Input
Amino acid sequence: QLRLADCPDLLTRKKRTRSLDGLGRDARFQMLADSIGVNPKRRHRLIGRSILLVDDVMTSGATLAACTEACLAAGAKDVYTVTLARVAKDT
Output
């Protein structure tokens, strides 16, 4: 057992964004820039700590990047990410 604390409401959307379906990588990153923030009621839980973000599926990495930036800006020591699946690129 790892004995890791979880905080499912650590991150919140600061602004609504339209669906990312059909957008390219650069457009996804631009759309999500500054759209995710740390819940002010939970900020104390990450200050100076290492954070592990878990995501089910990664397409471009834009959501994980926005979440990582939000955690670091709020005072996280460092951020690690784990994804369960990666969307296959057309070949």
